[in-house]
Design brief:
- By secondary structure, the chain is α/β, with parallel strands linked by helices.
- The chain folds into three domains: 91 residues, Rossmann fold (3-Layer(aba) Sandwich); 205 residues, UDP-N-acetylmuramoyl-L-alanine:D-glutamate ligase (3-Layer(aba) Sandwich), CATH 3.40.1190; 136 residues, Mur ligase, C-terminal domain (Protein-Tyrosine Phosphatase, Chain A, Alpha-Beta Complex).
- Helices cover 33% and strands 24% of the residues.
- A ten-stranded mixed beta sheet has the order 10-9-11-8-12-13-14-15-16-17, sandwiched between helices. Strands 18-19-23-20-21-22 form a six-stranded mixed beta sheet, with helices on both faces. Strands 5-4-3-6-7 form a five-stranded parallel beta sheet, with helices on both faces.
- Helix 11 runs parallel beside helix 12, helix 12 runs parallel beside helix 13 and helix 14 crosses helix 15.
- The longest helix is centred in the middle third of the chain and has 16 residues.
Length: 475
């Protein structure tokens, strides 16, 4: 496909959402989110007048304001006085005063997923979804395609360290983005290439049961454009069962990847060498050669295989892929090494699901620390309630597990559901756990007890990373 990639002009007013042409000014409610800030950036680069509001400043907002985009800190009715269209994130409550006024004024209002779908569906889209690995996989693909000169546009769920951005506007028709299965918005997407990393039983607050979630993924697969491809994690039992049960009805080309040799593309001879992960890539029965990369863990080998597969399908030669991937240093908050304190390594990871936490702890173990100190901030009350036992099991091998209060996101508290429940289950498993009421208490404890060659791992999708930054004097 590489030779067939078309260049597209970056002109304003070319984006239609349900036959409505965006005009601007476009106001983003919750503009500081990863995806929201990325969409705002892309529309700004397309020539639209963009503005937004959020509760507090962050690195994404700072980047937008440096471009001249007006961002209000705090939500007020007056913020939308000049807006013609509204885009809101799913973290925004229906009682948000900007959203309420926009409805009263009869403004055009779009959920984030609808704008993303319009960008994806008007392009040669590459959509990455699944329970785990979305951000790393989408970042790997974006990095590879950009370095290979394919000029993609992309939005990813974190700051790509080597590119220092979460979004980029390229000159080709290629568009790379994460697909969000948590709220069903991925069903609005119609990409040319779909990547499904894995499927686990989650988001049941939206889907009600696991069967509904699996059916949603099947519908998503049927959304692939004619002539497109499905790149699926073939080691995952749920993904494998969906493919086996419905293979005859799936029109797209199916490429499975993983470490099992039954996959169409698989990794062999996996080992580490001086802190790097090395493996050989086998595709359609042929050994293509070796890959060496900075990312640790079997799960990242699988993420890289998905990237390699979609790269090959888009005409990038394996030799070029093998030259580019070693340069990828990862994504912010994805097993990110923040620095050292008194000889201890400080690492941060976005993990907020038991499987992700296990993977992060396994990567710590590969570094052979004196002790592992893991500070976990559960994300959302519903998730904590559902996975309390699994969280305890994921943390039980840690030398010093520390819990801090739940990061609510947009949820209301559930009576009786606190992070102390995880501590109680850890005690039952024979692993004493510590609980602190705030991050400052954790920092004070670490300063007193940390030892050389310890690894301190902060885990969670909230603001637990601030503990490491405070320890290192970065706050």
């Amino acid at each position: 496909m590489r030779g067939n990639i078309q260049k597209i002009p970056m002109t304003a007013n070319q984006l239609s959402v349900n036959n409505y042409k965006l005009r601007g000014p476009i106001h983003f409610i919750g503009i500081g989110g990863c995806s929201m800030s990325g969409i705002a950036y892309i529309l700004f680069k397309k020539g639209y007048k963009v503005q937004g509001a959020d509760l507090q400043e962050n690195s994404y907002i700072k980047r937008l304001t440096e471009l001249g985009i007006k961002v209000y800190i705090g939500h007020k009715k007056d913020n939308i006085k000049d807006a013609k269209e509204i885009v809101y994130s799913n973290a925004v409550s229906c009682g948000n005063e900007e959203l309420v006024l926009a409805k009263q004024k009869g403004l055009e209002i779009f959920p984030r997923g609808q704008i993303l779908a319009s960008l994806m569906n008007s392009s040669a889209g590459i959509a990455i979804c699944g329970s785990h690995g979305k951000t790393t996989t989408s970042s790997l693909i974006s990095f590879l395609f950009l370095r290979a000169g394919l000029e993609p546009t992309f939005i990813v769920g974190g700051n790509v360290i080597d590119l220092d951005t979460n979004a980029h506007v390229g000159k080709s028709e290629l568009f790379i983005a994460e697909a969000d299965e948590s709220d069903g918005s991925f069903l609005m997407l119609s990409p040319l290439f779909e990547i499904i990393t894995n499927i686990e039983e989650e988001h049941l607050d939206y889907y009600k049961n696991f069967e509904n979630l699996k059916n949603a993924f099947l519908k998503y697969i049927h959304n692939i454009k004619n002539g497109g491809s499905l790149i699926a994690g073939g080691d995952d039992e749920i993904v494998k069962n969906i493919l086996m049960s419905h293979k005859k009805n799936i029109k797209a080309q199916i490429i499975t990847y993983g470490i099992c040799p039954t996959n169409l593309i698989y990794a062999s001879n996996i080992h580490t060498d001086n802190g790097k992960t090395c493996f050989e890539v086998n595709f359609k029965g042929k050994n293509l050669g070796k890959i060496k990369m900075s990312l640790l863990g079997i799960h990242n080998v699988k993420n890289a295989l998905a990237c390699i597969a979609v790269g090959l399908l888009n005409g990038i030669k394996f030799k070029e892929i093998a030259e580019i991937l070693p340069g990828f240093r990862g994504v912010s908050r994805r097993f990110q090494i923040k620095g050292r304190y008194k000889g201890a390594l400080i690492v941060d990871d976005y993990a907020h699901h038991p499987t992700e936490i296990k993977a992060a702890i396994q990567m710590v173990e590969e570094l052979k620390p004196k002790r592992t100190i893991a500070i976990f901030q559960p994300h959302r009350y519903t998730r904590t309630q559902y996975f309390v036992r699994e969280f305890a099991k994921a943390l039980k091998k840690v030398d010093v597990p520390i819990l801090i209060p739940i990061y609510a996101a947009s949820e209301k508290p559930i009576p009786g559901v606190t992070s102390r429940l995880i501590c109680e289950h850890l005690e039952k498993l024979g692993t004493p756990a510590l609980h602190f009421e705030n991050k400052k208490e954790v920092v004070a404890y670490l300063k007193k007890t940390i030892q050389p060659n310890d690894i301190v791992l902060t885990v969670g999708a909230g603001d637990v990373y601030k503990i490491g930054e405070e320890l290192l004097g970065k706050n």
